[in-house]
Structures are given as C-alpha cells and as structure tokens.
Design goal:
Helix content: under 10%
Oligomer: single chain
Number of helices: 3
CATH class: Mainly Beta
Strand content: 25-35%
Number of strands: 25
Strand order of the largest sheet: 1-22-21-20-19
Number of domains: 1
C-alpha cells in the first residue's frame, strides 16, 4: 500500500493503528470497570441444601442435563482414563444406558455414526440436545471432531456437522461448546481459540487464537490448595474449557479452567465484518474468578459457578451480585451443571482432580461419583 497522504480512498496505516489503539483503550477501561463491578454478598447461612439424585461406580460424569421427565443425561470424558461409556441416560431406577443408543457409543460403529469422545452437552428448551465430540479417543487416537444434534423426544440423531480441518490445528482439542443464533461456539482447549460454525450455511471460522481471555495464565488450584499436575507431573495447563450462553443468546461466557471468567457478545462472533483487532479486544473480564469446573445459566440469567478449589457453588446475578450459596465437602470437583426451567440445579461431583490428567498420572477416584440437586428457585434473594 502506498504511504502517500494524497490517496483519499484508503485510511492511512497510522490512522488505522491510532483508531485501533483508541478502541483498545476504551475496551480496556470497560473491561476494568466490569471486573470491579460485581458486588460480593455474604454467603448463604445456612448453605443451600443438596439432595443426592444419582451415583456411578464406573464413570466420572463431568456434564449433566435433565430432561423434562426428570431423566438425567450424563457425559463421561474419555481423557480421564476411566473405561466408560461416553454418553448415557439414566432410567427411572437411575441405571445408565448408552445414549442416544448403543450403536452411537460402540467403537465398532463407523466414525461418522458414533460418539468417539463427547466433551460437552447442551440441552435447549425445545428438547434439542447438542453434543460436541472432540474425536480424540481415550488412547489419544485422533479422529473427526463434530457437532451432533439429537432430538431427545425421539432419541434420534437428526444432524451432524464435521469440524473442517481448516478450522483446526494439529494440537487442537475441542472442549466446550454452546449453541445459539443458529451458530455453534466451540472452545479449542488445545490451541486456544473459538471456532464459530454456522449451522445453517455450514461456514466455519477460527477466531481469537491465543487470545489471553482463552488462554490459561495461572495454575489450576484444586481442593486443599493443591496445584493440579498433568500425567507427566508438570503443572497442568487447561485453556478455554467452560462455556455458557445467556437465555437470550446474546452473550457467551467462557473461561480457561484456571479462571477468570469472560463475557463476549455473540453478535461480535457471528459478524464476518468484525476485524481481528476488534475481536482481540472484545472480551470483557466478567469476574476475577477462581477455577470453575462448570458454568450454568438459570432462566433469569443468573450464573451458577462451581468453584473446584473450595468445593463451593456461587451465583452471579444479572445485577452482578456475587454470592456463595453452598460449600460442601461432597462437592469434590463440582463440574458441568444444568439448571431446569423450574430452577433445579443439577451438579455432578466429578472428582476430576483425582484422575491421571490432573493428578500427576495417578488414578485415585473414590467411587461412587455423585450427582446432586439444589433448588435454587427457592433460595432467598441475593443481597449485599
């Protein structure tokens, strides 16, 4: 490009840079303000009561959703090293069965018609279940990552979307996903980025690679202040791995496992006209949080945040009041939760800190693994 000022049809590079820095400054101030704006409230006293609703002696369930009839669908990650099915549904006796059926969980089924390694699930109000399959088997074998749509009313897979090779990197590991506005927002934990997949037009874009909001910047502190170690005994690094989307589908919340939590407008992500520099500076630091094993959103937009370091659950209201609602030793690594339309919060205590990938290569899960229920609709109003 010519540097002559006499070319009026193109903005000068210095002008564009100045505008970019000005935009970055404004966004930085907004982010700083947002980070300070949450108002801490005294913890609930007594803590919210928890009810055990399911247990497993064979699977480290780390994500759950609940159907209108009360049946629980649970996901067990392949990377934990536990021999287990990837996706199950619990019957009325709380016994697990492969979901949506045995063939979709059978390693002998052709890859395009099975779930190799589910890593995230999302249930929408119309009964649609979205499943993110990383394609990375328990032995590390890499296959085709994909998004799978299931109609829970019929337990039938209605569509699949393969993630394009162009949207991936050799070390990609897809770990989190939320769907809204006809798009899937997918977190790449292996090489931090967000992949936005248009579920109608099938276009896919890889955005914000190595953005600080997606990248682990500190150790993961687990129970008793212990730093999580990977299988090789080094400090475990887990980039963007938790996501939630607001009820109106306008806001995406996400965090690396170590925290903190960020917020980003979905309109920014789906607009191809938004420039890379605008995307780079768009995430808002929503709360300087500890490590969260799960983020769930209630019908009113309240965030429920599972603190793995203290076996606690916090809520962050739309009015940005931050309050601990329960601390309980039974919540050994509270993981991916689900809030029903009636305000029942389901939380798996996944014990992921006792699996090899976060425990220096040692398997020390204490069976059974539990799922608990909390009636958050009945909790008193958060006040500070």
């Amino acid at each position: 490009m010519s540097s002559h000022a006499s070319i009026p049809s193109r903005p000068h590079r210095a002008c564009r840079a100045g505008a970019a820095f000005a935009l970055a400054g404004v966004l930085a101030m907004m982010n700083a303000t947002a980070a300070r704006a949450a108002k801490p409230a005294p913890p609930l006293d007594p803590s919210a009561p928890m009810e055990e609703v399911a247990t497993s002696t064979a699977a480290t369930w780390d994500r759950v959703v609940v159907l209108p009839d009360g049946r629980i669908i649970a996901e067990a990650p392949a990377w934990t090293g536990v021999k287990q099915g990837g996706l199950v549904i619990l019957d009325s006796a709380k016994q697990p069965h492969p979901y949506p059926d045995a063939a979709w969980n059978d390693p002998a089924t052709p890859e395009g018609q099975r779930l190799t390694a589910p890593t995230d699930i999302q249930l929408q109000d119309d009964g649609t279940l979205w499943v993110l399959d990383s394609g990375i088997a328990a032995d590390g074998t890499r296959g085709q990552p994909k998004v799978v749509r299931i109609d829970t009313r019929t337990a039938q897979v209605t569509a699949t979307w393969n993630i394009d090779a162009a949207a991936l990197r050799p070390d990609s590991r897809l770990a989190a996903m939320r769907v809204g506005n006809g798009h899937a927002y997918i977190g790449d934990e292996g090489v931090p980025a967000i992949i936005v997949a248009d579920l109608d037009g099938h276009a896919q874009r890889r955005l914000m690679e190595h953005n600080p909001a997606l990248t682990a910047g500190r150790p993961i502190i687990g129970p008793d202040g212990r730093v999580m170690k990977n299988a090789a005994g080094h400090t475990a690094i887990v980039n963007v791995s938790q996501m939630a989307i607001s009820p109106d589908e306008k806001w995406l919340y996400f965090e690396p496992l170590s925290g903190p939590i960020y917020k980003l407008g979905t309109d920014v992500l789906i607009d191809p006209k938004v420039t890379p520099i605008e995307l780079e500076d768009s995430p808002t630091l929503w709360y300087k949080s500890p490590p969260y094993g799960g983020i769930a959103v209630g019908p009113d937009g309240t965030l429920y945040l599972n603190d793995v370091s203290t076996s606690s659950i916090f809520r962050l209201t739309p009015g940005r009041i931050y309050q601990r609602i329960v601390t309980d030793a039974r919540l050994q690594w509270p993981a991916g939760s689900h809030v029903t339309p009636q305000g029942m919060l389901y939380v798996p205590a996944a014990q992921l800190d006792r699996t090899p990938a976060l425990n220096g290569g040692q398997m020390q899960v204490t069976w059974p693994v539990h799922v608990y229920r909390i009636n958050v609709a009945a909790l008193p109003e958060a006040k500070f």
